[in-house]
What we know:
The chain is of the alpha+beta class. Helix content is 31%, strand content 31%. It has a single domain (3-135), classed as Electron Transport, Fmn-binding Protein, Chain A (Pnp Oxidase, Chain A, Roll), CATH 2.30.110.10. The protein has helices at 3-16, 71-78, 100-113, 116-122, and strands at 30-36, 43-49, 51-53, 56-60, 81-86, 89-97, 130-135.
Amino acid sequence: MSTNNFNQAVIEEFRANHGVVGGRLAQSSLLLLTTTGAKTGLPRTTPLGYWIVDGKIVIIASVMGAPKHPAWYHNLVAHPEVTVELGDERFQARAVPLEGADWDRAHAEVTRQAPAIAEHHTRTSRKIPYVALLRENA
Length: 138
């Protein structure tokens, strides 16, 4: 199954089951992130794991340690206003890439909660972005 087909199946299952998915993602904290395409201007929805760090929702652009950032990351850098679906809740957020001490704290907390994430950093020479999703009007 292609990545696009897998993601579409996860999106459909997430929405049909109020944010719950089964299979290999059953124990994951998942959200759906809808960005605006950097080149196309079209909405793009991606299922992503997330963590709570300092009370903020944090996602990481690791792609398992791939050499390039994922398309969704390029989209949110170009258009930081995003839509987040978390369980049955849907809200607007501003995506803020973390830097400096904020990146360090997020990295330490995410790898504490999910030690396997640390391995992603060893697979690539790029600095893997951590992004906070800040609710609008919160």
